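S.,

Sequence below, as promised.
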Amino acid sequence: MSLRGAPGAIRVIAGHLRGSRLTVPDRPGLRPTPSRVRETLFNWLTPVIEGARVLDLFAGTGALAIEALSRGALTATLVERDPGLAAALTANLDRLKTVGGTVHPADAMAWLAGPPRPHDIVFVDPPFASGLWTPAAQALDRGWLASSAWVYLEAPVDAAPELPPHWRMHRQGHAGALQFALYRVAAGIR
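The prediction came back faster than expected:
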């Protein structure tokens, strides 16, 4: 996929890895989160990113998880089923000498069926044609979310994911044909 500025690469926006290039393999349907959207998202997350345990489902380029690590997240778990993308994620983490990033080459929904480990921030950006927002939200709600966790969803503007009622909209935005939103999981409500 050719991206504006540098084909096959995107840049980390801020933090200790600011300006670092992430190699992006050419894959059908791969849509890296636009830098403007990433900047908005991480402005929203600034008060809670330091020391956070992050889960990036459907990691793709890994831009969200690597941006989180750059900005002070303690750990980032990246789940990606495409072996080539998973290898590229591992190579990017190794090349950038990141600490706390772990790649799991697995199908996200199958991975969520395993033993849950709570995370503070979760990024949910599945392939648009998959329709996995609702199933992923339901699976996350079974022990993957820490008390008062934050969940970011990215979807086409016409998608209407059904989310658990205790997920409260914090902020939302649109960029072209893309909608994005940050939810807060209400503590003590399940």
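The first strand starts at residue 9 and ends at 11.

Coffee later?
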